[in-house]
Structures are given as C-alpha cells and as structure tokens.
C-alpha cells in the first residue's frame, strides 16, 4: 500500500475516522481492486498510514469482518474473503434502457426525499417549464439484497407528481405511475457519463466520497412529444457494467471502423 492509494481522512466529517477507513477498503474490495484471498495491511501499518490509533484501525477491520468482506485470523492477519457476484450487464447502448427496467423488477426502493420546489434552471429548460414552475423532486435509493445499488433523482411537473406520493414511489416503477396518471410515454433521450460521489450520495450508497459512479440521465417524452420527466441515476460500477458486442467493417467511404452489432 502506497500513500498514492490512500484517501485523506476528514476529521471534520461527521463520519467517524474508523468508518472512513472502512469505506475505503470496502470500496476497494467490492470494486475488485482487492481480490479474494489477498492480505490487507496490518493494523499497525494501517494506523501509521492513516495517522490514527491502532484501536481505530482495528475497529475498521472488525467492521469489514462483520460484513463478511474479510477474515481475521490471529497471527495470520486479515485477508479478503469476498467473492464478487456476476454483475448485471447492459447489452449495448440500444439495450440499456430495457436492462434498467429489468433491474427495477429485482431490487427494492427507499424514498429518501420527496419535495415540491421551483425547478432548477437547467431542469426547467429541459421540461419546457417557465422559470419558477414547481416540480416534484424525488430522491430514491435502490438496493439489491440489502446492498445499495443506485441513487435516483427525478423531476416531474407538479401536475403529474401530485398523482402519487412516497408510498407509491416505493412500491412501483415511476414510469408505471406516470402512465397510470394518464400520460402515455413514447420516447426518451438518454446519455451515459460518469461522476464522483458527493458526500450525500456516498453515504447513501456506502461508498467513500469521490468514488466513481456510472451516471444515466434521461429525458422522457409523452405521445405528443412533450417532456414529462427528467431523471438522473447514479450506479455503483461494482454492481453494474455495460457490455457491447462490436464488429469490424467498412464505412461508406471504405474505411475500417468498429460498430455495434445491434
């Protein structure tokens, strides 16, 4: 372990120092950087590297052990015992939306916040709403087998959002609720990017702040072409991956290029 791999602990963060260390190693284990059978540094080495007490280092390692991510053996140290399950895979960009719908059927949702407020300027522009128009803003966390999977922020025009509340959002896919309120969904524009987890999202997804996340942004339109929802979903990359089949061929100008097989 070198200094370059270590995050800087924040003593002003309400998250205790031992838990910040735990989150660092937890993320490295779940993301596959530290693999099954690999030995972690000793408590003394961890304490020195992070400039904390050995008790703090020990508590971080014990928390990993309680979660079943490592095995602690007296005299032999701490080794990774986590075996990564197969991650859900999106079948290319064209199949990604369908894959996310399937994910919704195998996970549970916690509604973290549900408010009505003036739409942020970029959101108002996307939804073609006047400045200051109220929107329903919902923040949800999706989990699989109790493990946080994604952080979802959605915006709906007030007239649509008032048709359902927290209970419905926790029990049903939001697209289903929109259609049940009388709005037929016809199309969507979706973009894929990445961004680091801010402290709030990091805490919700049990990640260290700054951990990389897959970001899906989607603008949904009804049958008349009117935008009715803007949603951003942040996915833990250790629990989701995008797989695409490519083929090598020639374009219209006879140049060799890669293209999706779908």
Automatic annotation (TrEMBL):
SUPFAM superfamilies: Chorismate lyase-like, Winged helix' DNA-binding domain. One of its GO terms (molecular function) is DNA binding. PROSITE patterns: HTH_GNTR. SMART domains: HTH_GNTR, UTRA. GO terms for biological process: negative regulation of DNA-templated transcription. It comes from the Bacteria. Pfam families: GntR, UTRA. Gene3D superfamilies: Chorismate lyase-like, Winged helix-like DNA-binding domain superfamily/Winged helix DNA-binding domain. This is UTRA domain-containing protein. Keywords: DNA-binding, Transcription, Transcription regulation. Residues 15-83 form the HTH gntR-type domain.
